[in-house]
Amino acid sequence: MEQTENVLQAPADNADEVEAPSAESRASYVQAPKLMRIASMTRAMLDEIRQAPLDEPGRRRLAEIHERSLAEMNDVLSEDLRQELADIFTPISAESASESELRIAQAQLVGWLEGLFAGIQATLLHQQAAMASQLQEMRMRAIEAQPRSPADEERPPGQYL
Questions:
Q1: Which residues are paired to 8 by β-bridges?
Q2: pLDDT of the residue at 92
Q3: How many beta carbons lie within 10 A of that of residue 18, not counting itself?
Q4: Rounded Cα gap, residues 107 and 50, in angstroms
Q5: Can you give the pTM of this predicted structure?
Q6: What is the mean pLDDT of the chain?
């Protein structure tokens, strides 16, 4: 879980301007707002191309948008995720890509993004549970560390009135 401890960087005043992570957290750094916009656009494009056939200009445009989306994602992903993206996705030729190749590439990209978001969500839930557990432990230690007076021991616990 070390690598995913700092998965998301909190957005600054502007959603696109995020402070750069430290060197040790750079491996798992993601700019969530921009990545979410790219994912939403990719999902909408996939839904659109499922419903209508593409002509030649539409195929070229979709291939260009697909390549541009991958390039934009490289700007917001950590080094390990960029490497994974490069390993999984092969470049698509705008001139020779068939309609089915473009649909498959878009579906693959949407699936990868959904997996990434599921991983981020799982990491955040794990972090939240760990922090709640630590807080509970700190509370228990604080209660145990409080000095007890002799008067406290004479009263039965839970009797406030």
A1: 30
A2: 83
A3: 19
A4: 10
A5: 0.61
A6: 76
